[in-house]
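Exercise 7b. Backbone tokens:
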């Protein structure tokens, strides 16, 4: 099946920014873009006039407006559009089952407080099987500004655990022809967490920070070989993952993080690091599911 990018639109400024970013990415990668708008007739239990045909036309108009904007801005874009007869979350998840990327919009609440992901976005990111990119309007405008800066990726765990996250990040950097900053944050474990085995490993590498640097280099090694054209900056810093990544990505054009594929009685989770950067990053954030 041909690789495709999918973007969810609903007529809002944030979804238009997501559509614009997705169109840029599709053109950059030479891939088709499929724009979807999930709409399901659900009459309100209120004494007001409601017309199914009128609402259906509004849903079609949302897509037509986005199609017109994107075709005008990106003449060579391979674009299709579809109204999904479904609720937003299951509709987007179904549309993105075989997608390379799913792109959604993020609503901002101000420079000091951060950005509002929204319940739909959080559910989609937690359940999607493909990477999900969250985009917000740039400086209050619905159109994504020209991208500058490096790609930043958060690496944690071992070689296999971070493989998919690094694949997405290296491909993004290679496509953009920009450097990739690979960030590994680490914290001192509580005293009770020390064991003779862990201390032996740390001592062998000359301390905890050299051990973390060695772990990062080991994870990067196969991807450096696969993408020799990508300039890589290895960044190891002590601190919380979210804070370290946000500082490293202050001037980035894309931040890539992972989320573990796991669930609980309360539903799927995106993890504390992904949660932090999604709500406070100024640049688009790609969340990649991994084991």
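Sequence design result:
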């Amino acid at each position: 099946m041909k690789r495709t990018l999918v973007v969810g639109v609903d007529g809002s400024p944030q979804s238009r920014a997501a559509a614009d970013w997705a169109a840029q990415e599709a053109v950059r990668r030479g891939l088709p873009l499929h724009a979807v708008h999930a709409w399901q007739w659900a009459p309100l239990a209120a004494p007001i006039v409601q017309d199914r045909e009128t609402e259906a036309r509004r849903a079609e108009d949302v897509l037509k407006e986005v199609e017109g904007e994107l075709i005008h801005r990106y003449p060579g874009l391979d674009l299709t559009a579809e109204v999904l007869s479904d609720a937003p979350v299951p509709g987007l998840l179904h549309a993105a089952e075989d997608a390379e990327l799913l792109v959604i919009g993020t609503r901002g609440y101000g420079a000091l407080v951060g950005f509002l992901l929204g319940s739909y976005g959080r559910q989609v990111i937690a359940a999607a099987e493909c990477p999900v990119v969250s985009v917000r309007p740039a400086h209050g405008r619905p159109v994504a500004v020209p991208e500058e800066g490096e790609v930043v990726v958060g690496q944690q765990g071992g070689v296999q655990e971070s493989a998919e996250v690094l694949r997405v990040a290296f491909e993004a950097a290679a496509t953009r022809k920009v450097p990739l900053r690979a960030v590994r944050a680490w914290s001192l474990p509580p005293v009770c967490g020390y064991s003779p085995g862990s201390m032996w490993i740390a001592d062998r590498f000359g301390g905890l920070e050299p051990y973390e640097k060695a772990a990062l280099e080991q994870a990067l090694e196969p991807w450096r070989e696969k993408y020799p054209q990508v300039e890589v900056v290895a960044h190891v810093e002590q601190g919380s993952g979210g804070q370290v990544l946000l500082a490293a990505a202050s001037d980035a054009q894309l931040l890539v993080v992972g989320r573990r594929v796991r669930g609980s009685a309360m539903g799927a989770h995106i993890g504390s690091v992904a949660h932090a950067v999604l709500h406070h990053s100024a640049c688009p954030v790609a969340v990649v599911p991994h084991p």
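Instructor comment: The two ends are 24 Å apart (CA to CA). The longest strand covers residues 180-186.
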